[in-house]
């Protein structure tokens, strides 16, 4: 019998004990100053873990046992209470804060060398003259090229405390010797607004990918620019947006609702209700707003859509949203790790909860997407299952439903011409992105004649370009990937990816939106209102 199998019962016993211990620590009926007080039961478990640490015959990683236990506890609560290990905290925190400290480049490992795709707009790297195609050879004298360097190793060399400097040696084609750049690290934004531009002379477009700390400021900045361009009505694209901070979603909603309109209310286990109302500060209260949602719009995205729909404000366009009506709060566990624990439910202004059931366990909960797909709901709104018991009425008499996502006012079916396994594989595998990068490497001046506007409007991907992509695929994978039936869609993705590597943010969305059926529907709605 292996040692692992021999001591499995012991490990499980420790895990259960640790679970009870942690559960005792998270007793929220206590006041905060008593939350972590001890009693004999907790002390007994503390001693057990200490005995194992110091006296047990074999080395046992009790930290990993506790980590596993925390995850098992949370899995049995609800699908959205999660544990964040210490190793992941910095990345998670940076993503939700909306920035990190670094030099500001997007890069691609090309032939075991870090090659710059693009220096981010306004970043320290752009300011010193680093540009697309540059190969970073050393950082502060240390080599960072070769197959043994992982992305995390490289990022560790480039990131650091704010205002510190890193000296980079860079190889650039057509330069006789290595170039040396000294770059001062600074805050680098992680944009949550992917794109903001005018769809036509009066209709603006903003796409938000998550609700981070920086999202409201980003949104206001882009809205101010759009106003100067003559925006009258707005498309707010929340498709694929998984959510984020509830308070940020409230601020976004406040831009569209008049003073004292109810945005949402939350209720915790003790029945305490907290209501959130709009203020006078909204800058877009009188114009039309179209909110785009789909089956992957969740949480804070649903708060925005639900608040506007229940106040008879704007038009919700797309497909039924994800169905997450739970609110989490992040709590430090004292060792650098944290737990995001569900602490309340939120309700839209009419009083509906849009949380779908998780009574059959997490697997069934996450498999709900496939059930919707197989039922035909993504193609036919009549296939959406609703319960009369969860029927609510808005102030103007519109019927809305709770119990599993926001049902849009205007349904737009899934576009099967671009939503299929082949295109999803090509997109997620990174093949298109790496192909475009290598094509640009051949001649980075080939597109100098195009301005961003000209490229998006006039550039066409040739059949020869697509054939080159097929040859590239054949050289990189043995899988038989055929996209004959989706040739035009592949051309669109190639052009969009090319635009994203050539130009600043939003270029990819501008290209893809040219053929987006939901965008076309909104433009038609806006012009015929």
Task: Kindly describe this structure.
- With 529 residues, the protein is of the alpha+beta class.
- The protein folds into 4 domains: 3-76; 99-189, Pdz3 Domain; 193-414, 2-enoyl-CoA Hydratase, Chain A, domain 1; 421-525, no CATH class.
- Helix content is 38%, strand content 20%.
- The protein is built from 19 helices and 21 strands.
- Strands 3, 4, 5, 6, 7 and 8 form a 6-stranded antiparallel sheet that branches. Strands 10-11-12-15-16-21 form a 6-stranded mixed sheet, sandwiched between helices. Strands 1, 13, 14, 17 and 18 form a 5-stranded antiparallel sheet that branches.
- The longest helix has 18 residues, at 8-25.
- The chain is globular, with a radius of gyration of 26 Å.
- It starts with a helix and ends with a helix.
List its salient traits.
4 domains; 19 helices; alpha+beta; membrane; hydrolase; 21 strands; single chain; endopeptidase activity; Pdz3 Domain; disordered N terminus; serine-type peptidase activity
